[in-house]
Amino acid sequence: MIDDIPGLRRVLKTNKVIAVVGLSADWFRPSYFAAKYMLEHGYAVIPVNPRYQEILGQRCYPSLSEIPAKVDMVDVFRKTEDVMPIAEAAIAIGARVLWQQLGVKNLDAVKLVETAGMEAVVDRCVKIEHARLFGGLNWAGVNTRVISAKRPQWLPY
Q1: Containing domain of residue 39, as a range?
Q2: Does 23 fall in a domain?
Q3: CATH number of the domain encompassing residue 78
Q4: Is residue 154 part of a domain?
Q5: Fewer CB near the last or first residue (10 Å), C or N of the chain?
Q6: CA distances (Å), 68 to each of 19, 48, 64, 94, 148, in order?
Q7: Which residues, 6+ apart, have CB-to-CB distance to 6 below 8 Å?
Q8: Is 146 among the domain residues?
Q9: pLDDT digit string, tens, across residues 53-90
Q10: Residue 120: beta bridge partners?
Q11: What is the dihedral of CA 97, 49, 23, 105, to 10 degrees?
Q12: What pTM value is reported for the model?
């Protein structure tokens, strides 16, 4: 399970296609905000929710198995007890990372995906971690616990 700054940075830097399971079309939901942020920062976001045809201008799929493209990361916005079948589907489609959002912590799913050769992140927000590690969040006065004298090369300013 990845829980350190270099590991999180590597995962976010190398996995650019994210299937967001449980993504809502409601603008006020955390999943919408996180997916919108990731889209705006160069990631491909694939919504997975059987209730919608499209979210954020992206075609929405009812399940992971129906996505025709290669998925690098599966980002889970579901209850902890719903994660195991999602982890199984992530393995089946060949994803590299299972990311469980804040408040989601299914350690059995972590064991399953790691046994299958995947990586796992638990109880962290992909948007918050990206902003903390890459997005200049520290410039707004937030203590990101990342100290560097170097300006990030991936920022446009």
Answers
A1: 5-140
A2: yes
A3: 3.40.50.720
A4: no
A5: C
A6: 11, 12, 9, 12, 40
A7: none
A8: no
A9: 999 999 999 999 999 999 999 999 998 999 999 999 99
A10: 98
A11: -50
A12: 0.83
